[in-house]
Specification:
four-stranded mixed β-sheet; 13 strands; Rossmann fold; alpha/beta
Length: 338
Amino acid sequence: MKVLVTGASGFFGARLVPALVAAGHDVTTLGRSESIPIFAQLPVLHEQADISHPDTLVAPMRGKDVVIHMAGLVSYRRSDYKPLHDANVIGSRNVMEAALSAGVGRVIHMSSIAGMGIPSPGDLGDETLPYNLQGLGNYYCDTKYDAEIEVLKVAEKGLPVLILSPGITLGEGDTHPHHFAIFKSLSKGVLMGYPKGGVMFSDIQDVVNTTINSISMGRPGERYVVGSANLTFQHAASIVSKITGSKAPVFPLPGFISEFVGSACETVFPILGKRPPMTRSVAWLSQRNIFFSSAKAVSELGHNQTNFEETIRRIAPYYLAAIKGDLSPDQLLAISRR
């Protein structure tokens, strides 16, 4: 297949593009930069374009069998609402309209369970869950949901597009500051408390493999949850602590303390010129059990669900090496692409 990937230089894309090449696909990446150095040794064509400029998108998409749309912004900071909306909502609309104009055979839109809402206590959500987070200040979640609305509007015009929704995705090549802050605290045994909630985790390898399966499997117009494990944060932390040989958190954190810390981080860290390791939105969400079923993806996309402990054993060397800073960027890149 002739496959075009947006957002190829990000966490997901950096793992997906080599896997697509290995699977025999003819891959083109699309982005604002003139090239993507990490793919220099791969037989990959790069097209320079910008998802915020629709007029640059149609030509690179002509003749493509598949477009995998992964470009977007991940941020839970209140101050980032406009760039989040521009990248995730307007950018996705532009990509879908361009793919429709170019006659692309299939589009895979990478979304997130963040755009699906929160199941009722004790329930396991699925693709039919109505979104229920609007107006609560969770702007990243809002923009992922609004992006899906834009995607489905273009699907109604005839674009064959399906949506993939991973959970909190862990793996080699991850650069998310929240994940590193938590992993660092756990590995050092200094994180005494844990949030009361839980979430669906996804293994990057599972997400990549299911994305490739989606090129020929699945039904256009449908959304698929692609998770690997539903765990409380207490359970997940105990597994990480066991594998890293550190002390596990021992008591639940009151929600108001977590949200206070998140708000303080959002205020103080930008003043210091740093990205906040926690935000109020993340703290609020961490008090809920955000669990989803991936049965539909397992059945229709051949989705694999790696055991969480197996995932952590595999990826711990990457996170620990990155945290310690005892490996060069090239060595970290080599780990991230294994």
